Amino acid sequence: xxxxxxxxxxxxxxVFEPFQATxxxxxxxxxxxxxxxGPFAHSEVVDIAVTPLGGGLFLVSWVEETGATVVHVxxxxxxxxxxxxxxADGRFLRMSGPITVVTPPDATSDARPHRNKALVIEAMTxxxxxxxxxxxxxLYVEDYVQHNPHILxxxxxxxxxxxxxxxxxxxxxxxxxxxGDLVAIHGRIRGWADTPQVVIDLFxxxxxxxxxxxxxxxxxxxxxxxxxxxxxxxxDEADRLPAA
Length: 244
Fold this sequence. Notes:
Blueprint: E1 11-15, E2 20-25, E3 30-35, E4 42-54, E5 57-63, E6 69-75, E7 80-86, E8 92-103, H1 112-128, H2 134-139, E9 140-146, H3 154-163, E10 170-179, E11 182-190, E12 197-206, E13 209-219
Parallel strand pairs: 9-13
Antiparallel strand pairs: 1-2, 1-8, 2-3, 3-4, 4-5, 5-6, 6-7, 7-8, 10-11, 11-12, 12-13
């Protein structure tokens, strides 16, 4: 994620165990913080260095007038800041606290849909094209929730299902849409049933892994056999839409 996706203009409250602070992200080079109460109470505008780490994560560091140095890992996807500060007297503080948005940023930028679509494509092709069971531990949470009543819960059951697939099984991805932590993908799977099936899979993503799954399958009817002559599935359907 480039640094110009840093949420400039965002004002937030973060509750650390020793105190609560208000941060205003003024620009890519300046931040204002205010601690209203307690022994650390003060307000200051500081020069910052911002390093994007990907996945909604930013490493932000600064030096205060007192000589204190602060390093933040600001995680806007998960709504938490991890702070490491060395005070002027040599004391070291290691803190984490949840974020509450007070004022939204000047421009909204959320990279999760792009990342999550790539995750789902990788999962579906790894399992149902290459039948690669090793991808399951990497791409799925341990307590993965399955809403298809014909498939048992968890990663172990998914590994067993994939390991037992016929070599005839092959999945083709088509349209894919994402918002926040949800992804829906339209595809076609052959070899799962006696006839090819068109399927819509819906996934919920949690901390960068697939956490929950729903699906709806329908036997494919060819365009020539259908009443309106329009195909149920076209592997090139996603290419006809503007890039998201």
